Amino acid sequence: MQRYEEFFEHAPVAYLITDQFGVIARANEAAAKLFGKSQQQLVGKPIATFVSGDDRRDLRKRLNDLSRMSGPVVWEAWLNSQSGRPFHAELSVSPSRSQTLDVHWTIFDIMERSSTAQELQMLAAELEERVRERTDALTAERARLTAVVEHMPVGVIIVDVDGGVQLANEQAVEILGVQGAKIPQREWEAYRPDGSRYGADEFPLARARHRNEIVANERMEVATADGSTKFIDAAAAPIQDTSGRTIGAVALLLDVTTQERQERAEHEFVTNAAHQLQSPLAAIVSAIDVLQAGAKDEPERDVFLGHIERETNRLARLAQALLILARAQTGVEAPRDELVALSPLLREISASLLLAEGVEIEISCPDNLAVVTNRQLFEQALLNVAENAAKYTRKGLISLAAAAVDSEVEIVVADTGSGIPAEEQRQVFDRFYRGSGNGAPGFGLGFAIVRSAVEAIDGELELSSSEGSGTTVRVRLPRAASMISA
User: Fold this and answer.
1) Distance between CA atoms of 135 and 137, rounded to whole angstroms?
2) Same domain, yes or no, for 347 and 477?
3) Max Cα-Cα span within the chain
4) Which of 469, 449, 451, 453 is closest to 461 using CA atoms?
5) Are strands 103-109 and 86-95 parallel, antiparallel or unpaired?
6) In angstroms, rounded to a whole number, what is the distance separating the alpha carbons of residues 166 and 246?
7) Do residues 371 and 381 make contact, with C-beta atoms less than 8 angstroms apart?
8) Which residues contact 307 (CB under 8 A, 6 or more apart)?
9) Could you tell me if residue 310 is inside a domain?
10) How far apart are CA 214 and CA 394, in angstroms?
11) Could you tell me the CATH number of the domain that includes residue 355?
């Protein structure tokens, strides 16, 4: 009993003994220190006087329930000390099983623990807010990056170290004609400018990923998944982490198909033009050599002068044809529109044609019909179509007709000549193309000039032909007009 009294009195934890109504009967030294009163001052005080108002009602309810409790009850409440400083406490209450119905209280000051918990809670909330802000910032940054990548005018492909596609924008998918996830897995067929084929590990992206190679502007001819062929300028570079370890690679693809084909067409144009110029120049040089060698008599001299004149005229026609074609393709003539009367123009063109014996020409056009367009391009287009009809018509009829169709004008040139084989009709508008059965002289520029000139003046061109039955060419132009009679 003495040992219990010593333990009660000197325990480091505040102990109280109250009656069933909460009036303090005994208090140890730790309790007196906790409340800032002497042990004698505590005795006889209701414990409720030390409980903050918000928690006092809860205290009374718990005291009323003590008789029904089978064991200790623990809860937290705010208590007041003599200094007036409230503190957070944990109350452990155990009703006595003796006849005195005493109640034993153990009180712990948990202010420090609550403060620590509150600080931890605040730190956790602050950390959560920072994580949320960082996540939002990363999400926004990723959205901006995705928007930039998706709207870049080049294809972008990013792969990991194993070749798995992490990102492939719409441009890359469109250029290669395959879904992004299948880009590395497909067995590509691609060639270098020298004609050699790429091996699986020789593509720029593979070299960047496996060899840490930086590739810049490598021209590739690629057979895409949809069966088409494209020319691509490819650049690639490895992606490395902070330690310098390669974790993937990025490739940029620029579709230069149009540029490559234009460059090839220009090269082909120059080559073909040089070839076409070579024949008349060779004939002129040969004729001059003969004249210089002594062909001075009039009959012989006139023959070679005739050769020179004929080939010189041929050169002039070729130069004019090339000039017209270049001006039509660049569109420099399109703004210079004027009112063109069609009936006089068709008569002028018919009068200039060299017709075979027995071939008749027919003109059908209202006298007041006109069109607003560029006269030089329009006239050159019609002249080339009409000359082509005269060149290949050896009997029958050539007709030149014009009529107004709503607000448009339709000009039709039809002949009863040899016609064009079906397999060649799609090629007749190509520069320097001459059909397999074409035995007449020419440069293969006539219909090429027609197409370019009609396109330059916003017209439409249509050709229909049957081999052995003749050819019909229709030219439709906007902005029909009428001439005013004086």
Assistant:
1) 5
2) yes
3) 163
4) 451
5) antiparallel
6) 15
7) no
8) 283, 284, 286, 287
9) yes
10) 66
11) 3.30.565.10
- Reading across the β-sheet that carries 24-27, which strands appear in turn? 24-27, 14-18, 103-109, 86-95, 73-80
Q: Quick check: 75 and 58 in contact, CB under 8 A? A: yes
435-465 CB burial, b ≥16 within 10 A, e <16: beebeeebbbbbbbbbbbbbbbbebebebeb
Do residues 313 and 363 share a domain? no
Structural domain ending residue among the three candidates 236, 255, 274: 255
* Helix (H) / strand (E) containing 230: strand 229-240
User: The domain spanning residue 157 has which CATH number?
Assistant: 3.30.450.20
Residue that is written with structure tokens 């002068």 in the block: 305
Final residue belonging to a domain, choices 230, 255, 280: 255
Structural domain includes residue 138: no
pLDDT in tens, the chain (486 residues): 566 677 778 778 888 888 888 888 888 888 888 888 888 888 888 888 888 877 888 888 888 887 777 778 888 888 887 777 788 888 888 877 666 678 888 888 877 666 666 677 778 888 888 888 888 888 888 778 777 777 777 888 888 888 888 888 888 888 887 765 556 545 678 888 888 999 888 888 889 988 899 998 889 888 877 777 889 899 999 999 888 888 889 988 888 888 887 777 666 666 656 666 776 788 788 878 877 777 666 677 777 787 788 778 767 766 766 676 666 666 555 457 889 999 999 999 898 888 888 899 999 999 899 998 888 778 888 888 898 889 888 889 999 999 988 888 999 999 998 887 766 657 666 655 555 554 445 545 567 778 877 887 888 988 888 887 888 999 999 877 777 665
Same domain flag for 15 and 30? yes
Phi-psi region of 310 (alpha: psi -120 to 50; beta: other; left: phi over 0): alpha
Return the H-helix or E-strand segment holding 285: helix 257-293
| 353 lies in some domain | yes
Q: Are residues 32 and 100 in the same domain?
A: yes
- Are residue 159 and residue 197 in the same domain, yes or no? yes
Residue type, 65: D
Q: Are residues 471 and 344 in the same domain?
A: yes
**331, containing H or E segment:** none
> In the structure encoding, which two tokens stand for residue 114, read together?
């609550």
| Tokens standing for residue 214 | 């930086």
Domain-embedded: residue 217: yes
Both 292 and 158 in one domain: the answer is no
Range of the domain at 322: 261-330
